[in-house]
Design brief:
- The chain is α/β, with parallel strands linked by helices.
- It has a single domain, classed as 3-Layer(aba) Sandwich (Rossmann fold), CATH 3.40.50.1820.
- Helices cover 34% and strands 22% of the residues.
- An eleven-stranded mixed sheet has the order 3-2-1-5-4-6-7-8-9-10-11, sandwiched between helices.
- β7, α7 and β8 form a beta-alpha-beta unit.
- α1 packs across α8, α5 packs across α6 and α6 packs parallel to α7.
- The two termini are 38 Å apart.
- About 3% of the residues have low confidence.
Length: 378
């Protein structure tokens, strides 16, 4: 039975394009400036990565592990035909056409960490660090963070922490090892950013297996006595965490009850996490855990997205590809940490956004103190 279930999920992953052998070309061979009439926005995506620099400049960084961190900045454009929650991409892993697709239009490589931190600091005093998940190429991470920055209207500088995922469905174990190997590198990146006098706030969003890396890094910071990055840690959002529930409990016990906004986004219909659970001997993953109250007791806010529609058949990236959710995420990130909306205000936000995009929305929020259902649907 287990092998049959695994085969079904693998087929679903393949059908969704996750198991393709496509090339991961981000840059065009000869990048050209985007036509102003076809571009909605341009975002500078800063990058810290444990990936090896590829000989093909179009790929930029590949799936191999590097012994040293590398740093860069990718100029990304968003086309005017962009729809909230979607990533308009060229097919086959090819570079995008700026007139109708997300496209990389320029690239800067920083020779040192200090040059990278200085460049990030020059952009403003808020930073959003995004840690991508399993089966993700360098280009995939850049595209996703560009979409998040655009659709949330994040009021700061997006920074991608890109660890060496193999970007293939079969590379689950390789990816887990790569994410584990990147713990010190993510810690060094966060600490370096926090030491910039120009940067006042560092928000973190992690997705899928990237949550394992993020939580291990936060645990290390707690052990080092710096769990809040010298007071600069802002929001922490763990989306679809691919972490064993028992391990997450231990990580949170070591980290301690959060004194910053700390959210776990889960969904019972996450097919990708069912695949992870099977590989792990049917051990429950945090991202599809049914016991929200148990997780909330650790001091986190649990947001159950099970009744929310997803933009892909795996239901694994609802936080970013559902138009209601990504805009709600943006509204929260734009609020000061101390300003928490009342349940009625939150409910109104959900319903207003749902009406705007024509979707029903019902979100169950569990905190250490209460359980709320937001959004009445349609």
């Amino acid at each position: 039975m287990r092998s049959k279930m695994l085969m079904v999920i693998l087929l679903a992953l393949a059908a969704s394009g996750c198991a393709s052998e496509r090339r991961h070309e981000l840059l065009a061979a000869n990048p050209v400036g985007p036509p102003p009439a076809g571009v909605m926005a341009k975002h500078d995506i800063f990058v810290a990565t444990t990936r090896l620099r590829d000989e093909d400049r179009r790929i930029v960084f590949n799936d191999k592990r590097s012994d040293e961190l590398a740093f860069g900045r990718v100029g990304m454009t968003v086309p005017k035909n962009h729809e909230i929650g979607k990533i308009e991409r060229a097919k086959g892993g090819k570079p995008g056409d700026p007139a109708k697709e997300f496209a990389a239009v320029d690239l800067t490589i920083f020779e040192t960490q200090s040059a990278f931190v200085s460049a990030v600091g020059n952009q403003g005093d808020r930073v959003l660090v995004f840690v991508h998940g399993y089966n993700t190429g360098f280009d995939d991470g850049v595209y996703r963070l560009t979409q998040i920055a655009q659709d949330t209207e994040y009021p700061g500088t997006p920074v991608l922490f890109s660890w060496a995922s193999g970007a293939q469905t079969r590379d689950y174990v390789y990816d887990k090892d790569s994410s584990t190997a990147a713990r010190d590198d993510l810690e060094m990146t966060l600490v370096a950013l926090s030491r910039s006098p120009r940067i006042k706030n560092i928000d973190i969003i992690a997705h899928s297996m990237g949550n394992w890396l993020a939580m291990e890094t936060l645990r290390q910071l707690a052990i080092a006595g710096n769990r809040d990055l010298d007071g600069k840690l802002g929001y922490v959002v763990l989306a679809s965490p691919d972490i064993d529930v028992d391990i997450f409990k231990k990580q949170m016990m070591r980290y301690g009850k959060p004194d910053r906004p700390f959210a776990v986004l889960l969904s019972a219909d996450d097919k990708a996490l069912r695949f992870s659970s099977l590989i792990a001997g049917k051990q429950a993953r945090v991202g599809d855990d049914a016991n929200a109250s148990e997780l909330a007791a650790l001091g986190v806010t649990v947001v159950d997205l099970s009744s929310i529609e997803s933009g892909d058949r795996l239901n694994h990236a609802k936080f970013a590809d559902n138009p209601v959710l990504v805009q709600l995420l943006g509204e929260r990130l734009r609020l000061p940490e101390s300003l928490v909306p009342t349940p009625q205000q939150a409910d109104d936000h959900v319903n207003n956004l749902a009406r705007g995009v024509g979707q029903a929305a019902s979100i169950i929020v569990t905190t250490p103190f209460r359980i709320m259902t937001l959004g009445a649907g349609r």
